[in-house]
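Notes from hallway chat w/ T.B., transcribed later so I don't forget. T.B. wanted the structure written out for a chain they're using in a teaching module, and asked if we could keep both sequence and structure tokens in one place. Agreed to drop them here.
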Amino acid sequence: MITVTGTVRSTLEAGEAFAYLSAFEHTPEWDPGTPVVRKLSDGPVAVGHRYEAEAEFRGKRQTLIYEVVELAEGRITLRGENKAVISVDTIEVEPSGPGSEVRYTAEFELKGWRRLAEPIVRPAFQSLAGPAMDGMKRALDSRAAQ
């Protein structure tokens, strides 16, 4: 398994930050590695809510179907899957002074023969964290400035 983590602090209040980040369709606004997300479920975010996401990895786009598997105050976990990988993404938001602190964890489990490549592709997966965390901070802080 490959685990990628990142933490950002934002001036946006924790409740607003969580509301924005837990609406997974906003992901393309802050994560350059996920340029397209389409909602497949109607209504507000809830356990069982589904999304279709196009993820860019090593110059190729892959489609994953994500489902919200956990939703609690300040915490959401989504599980995405396609023929090559299972991705479990957890976003945790806590108050930090007048703003918020966000911890993002993505766990990738490669399927089948691809598991043998984990040591080789691990750095490529880990390189996704910096741009995503930078984009998340910009998106949250810009919402705080509104």
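Follow-up for T.B.: The helical segments are 14-22, 118-126, 129-144. Might be a good example for the class.
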